[in-house]
Amino acid sequence: MAENSGLKLVDRDDHGIDRAFRADVLEGLRQNPKALPARWLYDDAGSQLFEDITKVPEYYPTRSEREILEARGAEFAASIGPGRAVVEFGSGSSVKTPLLLEAIDPAAYVPLDIAGDFLRAAAADLSAKFPSLPVYPVEADFMRRVELPEAVADIPKLGFFPGSTIGNMVPRTAVDLLRTMRETLGEGSQLLIGMDLVKDRAVLEAAYDDAAGVTAEFNLNLARRINRELGGTIPVGSFSHEARWNDDFARIEMHLVAQGDLSFEVAGEGFTMVKGETIHTENSHKFKRRSANTLLLAGGWTPVQRWLDSGERFSVVLAEATIPRTAP
Ligand code: AVI
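# N,N-dimethyl-L-histidine complex -> structure
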């Protein structure tokens, strides 16, 4: 039965189990190597742990992106101009979105999010900060084409997708999303997107394995969530968190590593793992200028400008939904 929890549309069985979660977990644990979709990291505890990650000293992306948004307002204003409808993919964060809105003098703000309560809270927050800015929240899954409110139909759009969330998708999914964004926003629109950069392996691995162990908790919380929600018996204490740089695919991978041979059940199904075997739980792709450009172009966006923070750790890229005037 599909039920609206007030948060997300969740399809639960008679025992209250989220069917999609169970299907993804069972399918992922049957695979070799074992891998789970990263989106399941974000239950309430996981979302709070991610917020905590953004404050640990090793995790530079949030601070670096904020520095760009704070420092480059005048350049954003010059390149984007006033009067656009800013369409944010995900509910606006309390810090990043106001920095952009203050800089560019938009005509409207349209946050899109699948989580209705976060969306409404973020929209109310923004309305309080910008009382004369029309705000039109839309509860929707932005991985699919979204019908934007009639009120912004004739206004040029600026898509805003900060945080390097695009990096959590494998390129095929990222390209699908970029193309979908283009359909949602329309021809002639612009996109301002955060993309994290390739850098020293030690810096990257530390950012995803902080000394205080917050990222480890974030990763282990997925095993706890499986135990809680799917009647799992995963011996969480027998797993350790690992952040591993995969140079071939230019990405940090998070894994849960079995510390010994072990067995457990999830939703009544048995699984075994040998010592050292892992469950792959997240990818976080990092970009160079060319790989970022290639991804954007493959998704139908022509990059036009790029800003870096002072430490050159993170980039914010402005792209346009125009056909590049080069040979096909
Ligand atoms: C949400 N996303 C951009 C984060 C990242 O950096 O890939 C998720 C994260 N995983 C571990 N630390 C942060």
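# post-check
Residues 90 and 113 are 5 Å apart (CA to CA).
The chain is about 35% helix and 25% strand.
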